């Protein structure tokens, strides 16, 4: 029987509310991070402002030292950014790494209950804490750029003009976040109402309850006016179709109740 690796519980990552929804499983947390289009990264902005900074970034979990590592193994988080951005400058000035928090959220359904207070979402969320440092070695930097590009559309790296030229390598910075802890939280299922409402026929007779599944949809590719390739490459159409199928299936199955047939809609 295989082992399941988890992040250790610490004050910074222990979930206190709805503990039954918490997960510390590496594979679950890393998968949420890797399938979220935009990550929100917060960091201390320096001594001149009291407010923490938070910015949207593109990132991906991976291991340059062990590139065949799966999401169920210890991984770093690689983040892509511009050379002169504030977070990059702060990381450059932090010999032990810039402390950061990385957050990812996915909404899978709208929970419509009998009372406003019982409304909720089906969702998946993950948070990582770690120390961000600039990737200095060119070979690792190119590897990370490919990793992140492939996370946008699988097959795109080879489907574009590569490798990056010197100007692109100079203007792009990759942060490697050494993760020290993480946690996830998942809500699935249907409506959860209190007995005082479910037993009230006046309420149950007039308030519709249920779940509206929510999923991210990728549309049909639209060629750029300057595009000179007649057909959309197969790897792009395959990616779009595959992601739409995966996302819709997860949102529907997360409801955990029998789905109505087309005749019952």
UniProtKB/TrEMBL annotation:
Name of the protein this chain belongs to: Flavin-nucleotide-binding protein
Gene3D superfamilies: Electron Transport, Fmn-binding Protein, Chain A (2.30.110.10)
Pfam family, one: Pyridox_ox_2
Domain of life (superkingdom): Eukaryota
Species this protein is from: Aspergillus avenaceus
PANTHER family: 5-NITROIMIDAZOLE ANTIBIOTICS RESISTANCE PROTEIN, NIMA-FAMILY-RELATED PROTEIN-RELATED (PTHR34071), FLAVIN-NUCLEOTIDE-BINDING PROTEIN (PTHR34071:SF2)
Matching InterPro entries: Pyridox_Oxase-rel (IPR024747), Split_barrel_FMN-bd (IPR012349)
């Amino acid at each position: 029987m295989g082992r399941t690796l988890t992040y250790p519980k610490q004050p910074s990552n222990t979930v206190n509310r709805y503990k039954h929804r918490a997960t510390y499983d590496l594979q679950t947390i890393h998968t949420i991070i890797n399938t979220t289009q935009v990550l929100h990264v917060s960091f201390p902005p320096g001594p001149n402002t009291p407010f923490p900074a938070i910015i949207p970034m593109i990132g991906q979990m991976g291991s340059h030292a062990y590139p065949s590592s799966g999401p169920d193994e210890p991984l770093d988080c690689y983040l892509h950014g511009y050379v002169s951005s504030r977070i990059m400058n702060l990381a450059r000035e932090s010999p032990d790494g810039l402390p950061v928090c990385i957050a990812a959220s996915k909404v899978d359904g709208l929970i419509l209950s009998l009372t406003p207070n019982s409304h909720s979402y089906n969702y998946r969320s993950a948070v990582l804490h770690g120390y961000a440092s600039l990737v200095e070695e060119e070979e690792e930097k190119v590897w990370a750029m490919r990793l992140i590009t492939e996370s946008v559309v699988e097959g795109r790296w080879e489907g574009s003009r590569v490798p990056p030229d010197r100007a692109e390598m100079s203007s792009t910075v990759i942060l490697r976040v050494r993760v020290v802890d993480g946690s996830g939280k998942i809500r699935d299922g249907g409506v959860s109402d209190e007995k005082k409402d479910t037993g009230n026929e006046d309420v149950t007779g007039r308030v519709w309850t249920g779940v509206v599944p929510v999923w991210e949809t990728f549309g049909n590719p639209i060629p750029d006016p300057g595009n000179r390739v007649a057909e959309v490459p197969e790897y792009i159409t395959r990616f779009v179709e595959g992601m739409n199928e995966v996302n819709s299936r997860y949102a529907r199955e997360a409801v955990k109740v029998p789905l109505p047939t087309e005749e019952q809609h």
